[in-house]
Amino acid sequence: MYEAFFGLSRNPFKLSPDPAFLYRSPQHEEALANLIYGVQSRKGFVVLTGEVGTGKTTLLECLRDFLVYHHIEFATIFNSRVTPAEFFEMIAYDFDLRVEKPAKTEVLFALNQMLIQVADEGRTTALIIDEAQNLDWDVLEEIRLLGNLESREGKLLQIVMAGQPELDRKLDAPNLRQLKQRIVLRSTLLPFKEHETVEYINSRMEKAGMPDQQVFPPELLAEIHTRSQGIPRVINAICDNLLLTAFALESRVASVEMLDEVCGDMRLEWPGRRRRQETVDEPFPRPQLFRRDLGGG
Ligand SMILES: Nc1ncnc2c1ncn2[C@@H]1O[C@H](COP(=O)(O)OP(=O)(O)O)[C@@H](O)[C@H]1O
Ligand SMILES: [Mg+2]
User: Fold this and answer.
1) How many other C-beta atoms are found inside a 10 Å radius of the C-beta of residue 214?
2) Is ligand 1 within 6 A of the CB of residue 28?
3) pLDDT of residue 293
4) Ligand 1, atom 15, residue with closest C-alpha
5) Domain 26-189 classified CATH 2.60.40.420?
6) Which pLDDT value is given to residue 187?
7) Terminal alpha carbon distance of the chain
8) 270-297 as b/e, with b when 16 or more CB fall inside 10 Å?
9) Which of 19, 43, 182, 220 could form a disulfide with 62 if both were Cys (CB 3.0 to 4.6 A apart)?
10) Are 82 and 91 in contact (CB under 8 A)?
């Protein structure tokens, strides 16, 4: 909506996990390297955790691009609120297994055959599970058993699980001890530090066609960091709303006053937030525009 006004070629702050916009902070770089190494080294389980909006799904998308490019077979399970029966159905569907009915025994048989065939061709197979903190214990147990399938060369199925910090706690449970022992690589995504938030915003603006952006001045960038607490998803929502507000006011530069408005409308809370004074005068005319909210997932 505002792209043309700012001379941008595309929306810089879409909430989709688009690898084209990947900002390689050291921790994102390392986590992605771990995901890739974990699959390639055929050692078993890799786990990625982080708070909501820190970039887990984005890194999984990058991993998927890598796997496609390298002709590595994989299946992805995005909906982790499933029963064991549904889990096997999803496996059958996503790996395109030929089964009469997608019941556990048949799926396991077909999967094993497929895995051996792929391994014979010198290739590996991966199973990617997002939002893994939602997995039920009995599904986790099935996943652990899938991780046991092996040939003489090593594990047949490389399993990548991403999820919120609750996943770490789940994996610490005594009944998952065996699964935990099999995790070869574990990474955690933390919120950005201030200089990373600045680089992140600049990098997204650059990828959308504006190198050396001046829309967000330095003092505003620092303030966006404080209010977003360095969470990429929140940074995106704030910046998108700021661009929308600036556009509505026909201003090519966003301001801290606009940020106050945006954060108020987003009902955003952050540490050290002053109580908002009820002012009679609005700091600037309120644009009559629909503000995008934080979105889910
Ligand atoms: N390193 C990054 N580079 C570019 N965009 C990122 C990065 N980390 C997070 N994002 C963006 O932040 C938003 C939330 O990321 P997402 O991967 O959905 O987080 P999570 O899965 O951890 O909840 C998305 O718009 C995503 O593109
Ligand atoms: Mg996600």
Assistant:
1) 10
2) yes
3) 58
4) 55
5) no
6) 97
7) 24
8) eeeeeeeeeeeeeeeeebeeeeeebeee
9) 19
10) no
Continuous segment of H or E residues that includes residue 50? strand 45-50
pLDDT digit string, tens, across residues 112-143: 999 999 999 999 999 999 999 999 999 999 99
Atom of ligand 1 nearest to the CA of 59: 17
Among 22-31, 203-212, 273-282, which stretch is predicted with the lowest mean pLDDT? 273-282
* 232 has pLDDT over 60: yes
Helix/strand/coil (H, E, C) string of 171-232? HCCHHHHHHHHCEEEEEEECCCCHHHHHHHHHHHHHHCCCCCCCCCCHHHHHHHHHHHCCCH
How many whole angstroms separate alpha carbon 50 and alpha carbon 242? 26
- From the CB of 12, is ligand 1 less than 6 Å away? no
Distance 52 CA to ligand 2 centre (A): 7
| Cα(55) to centroid(ligand 2), Å | 7
SS3 state of residue 127: strand
- C-beta of residue 198 within 8 angstroms of C-beta of residue 225: yes
Contact 38 CB / ligand 1 (< 6 Å): no
- In this predicted model, which residue has the larger pLDDT, 154 or 125? 125
Read off the tokens for 217.
Answer: 């001045």
How much is the pTM? 0.92
Taking the domains of the chain in order of start, what are their residue ranges? Answer: 3-13+192-265, 26-189
